[in-house]
Amino acid sequence: MIFIKETGAILGQSRQILHVVEGNAGMVVFPTDVIYKIHKITSGQIFAFSHVHPDGMTILSHEDETTLFAQSLWFYPYPCRMITITLMRSDPFTKEHAFRETCYVGLLEAKETWLLHKDQKRKFEIIREWDRDFIIEEPQKAMNDWYGLILIRKSYEFENKRVN
Ligand SMILES: [Zn+2]
Questions:
Q1: Ligand 1 centroid vs 83 CA: distance in angstroms?
Q2: Full-prediction pTM beyond 0.90?
Q3: What confidence tens digit (pLDDT) does each residue in 34-44 have?
Q4: Would you state the torsion angle of the CA atoms of residues 156, 105, 130, 62, taken in this order, to the nearest 10 degrees?
């Protein structure tokens, strides 16, 4: 199983995929026109922006943090989240792959508080909210209702050839 590129998804409140975003080897750009359309129909409908990261990388990139800040301003008072899906290890014997889903939430200072010190920058911090581990055997075939599998299948190349 070889990492090829990042793949992202805009997730709804039930963690269902609202929109899939094709990325490249280093990043995913979440399309603002699509986000705008979804957010305009029902504010607060978007739960998170999730994406597959290169193996072992559970932290947010600088671009991820910038996106999270921009979206937090836009979504306010609704919170904005950025999730990473990362392959932590693979067991060559059992063919089990351990993936970690890590969720970050952007906390923007309340408008009311910020107005009291408007000469300073509005406070913003990113907090690691939770993480979950998934052990998946043969991700290309696994039957599981976790949305992450759909993204993993797009981000990895699977070796299916039989070696004689
Ligand atoms: Zn990222």
A1: 8
A2: yes
A3: 999 998 888 88
A4: 50
What is the distance in A from the centroid of ligand 1 to the CA of 16? 19
CB-proximal residues (5 Å) to ion ligand 1: 61, 64
The full set of domain ranges for the chain reads 2-157
Place of tokens 């039957």: 143
**Do 34 and 62 meet the contact criterion of CB atoms below 8 Å apart?**
no
Q: State how far the Cα of 34 lies from the Cα of 59, in Å rounded to an integer.
A: 25
Across the range 110-137, mean pLDDT stands at: 95
- 117 CA → ligand 1 middle, Å: 32
| pLDDT surpassing 80 at residue 160 | no
Q: Angle 37-43-45 (CA atoms, 0-180°, nearest 5)? A: 85
